[in-house]
Amino acid sequence: MRRLAFFTATSVIALTSCQDIIEVELPEGETRLIVNGRVTDRDSARVDVKWSVAYLNTDPNEPVTNALVVLIEDGVAVDTLTHRSNGRYLSDFQGEVGRSYRVAVTVPEREGYPSGTWTSATEALNRCNDADSIYSQYLPRAPFQQEGRYVFIHWSEAPGRGDHYRVRVFRNDTLQNQTFDLTVFNDDFNDGFVFPTPPSIPPIQIAGPDSVGVKYKVELGSISMGLFSYLNLLREQTLQVGGLFDPPPAPIVGNIYREGNENEYALGYFYASAIRTAEVTISE
Questions:
Q1: Cβ 183 vs Cβ 121: under 8 Å
Q2: Contact 270, 37 (CB under 8 A)
Q3: Using CA of residue 119, residue 121, residue 125, residue 130, what is the dihedral sign?
Q4: What's the CA gap between 264 and 284, in Å, rounded?
Q5: CATH code for the structural domain at 33-126+251-272
Q6: Where are the domains of the chain?
């Protein structure tokens, strides 16, 4: 045993003393425009316009502060958004369920950066029902369930297949924005369901367990099939852990393209959404 231990130790020393440092130079890639935004039927339209940075660059994305951002409804320009700060453009315009929207972003010439006009694909502003109720409830310890207070909503999905949704949750006014918080679903298997419908369909659990006094706000919004697929791909890519069964990394292309050339894309996504909100503070 002593001989084996001695051999193992010296082998480790020999292996670690023969390492070569290999420096790999990664191409920085071209600078691309980033456009993210939305128009809803309940709050201000907003668009964030920024430049991409190199993969290993830890600096924040540079904002574009001099773009012309135009909102288009059913093919007609209806508003020009105003730059407020850090590349964010805002408008008081609110959309309407049943209409379609896109955005056009024009960037002036600047040495070393692309310029011109990028437009988003047309997005329909689809229906979304209000939550019937939101409440907190104490649940005892059970298999696969911790003891504590949980937040639930009652909600009815509109009959007729083809609906897609995104859920955003705010805890004490802070958006829960980690990758695993990204929640989207469709009505492929729950078309027209009423949550809950005892005994087979439970209410929708939003959060928990959590403490008394914590405030939760739930935003349920309709989204297009395009955004549904985009967010699923984004979640899939960002949750990779380097395992053998992870999907290979690939560019995530949204719905923003240079006007007249769909092969030249910007990063990001502009979408239309009917949003419905509900709030509750966890109580005894």
A1: no
A2: yes
A3: negative
A4: 55
A5: 2.60.40
A6: 33-126+251-272, 131-233+275-281
CB 182 within 8 A of CB 234: yes
The letter for the amino acid at 232 is N
* Cα(59)–Cα(31) distance, integer angstroms: 14
- Contacting residues for 150 by C-beta, under 8 A, at least 6 apart: 136, 137, 138, 139, 205, 206, 207, 208, 209, 210
In angstroms, rounded to a whole number, what is the distance separating the alpha carbons of residues 133 and 280?
10
- Which residues lie below 8 Å from residue 95, measured CB to CB, with a gap of 6+? 39, 40, 41, 45, 73, 101, 125, 272
What tokens does 182 get?
Answer: 């990204």
Give helix then strand counts, H and E, for the chain: 2, 20
Residue 230 phi, psi dihedral angles, 5° rounding: -60, -50
- At 217, give phi and psi (nearest 5°): -120, 130
Query: H or E stretch including 161?
Result: none
Write out the chain's pLDDT in tens, 284 residues.
444 443 444 444 444 555 666 665 655 668 899 999 999 999 999 999 999 988 777 889 999 999 999 999 999 999 999 999 999 999 999 999 999 999 999 999 999 899 999 999 999 999 999 999 999 999 999 999 999 999 999 999 999 999 999 999 999 999 999 988 999 999 999 999 999 999 999 999 999 999 999 999 999 999 999 999 999 999 988 887 666 667 676 778 999 999 988 889 999 999 999 999 999 999 98
Cα 54 versus chain centre, distance: 21
Q: Is the distance from CB of 166 to CB of 273 less than 8 angstroms?
A: yes
Q: What is the CA radius of gyration of the chain?
A: 24
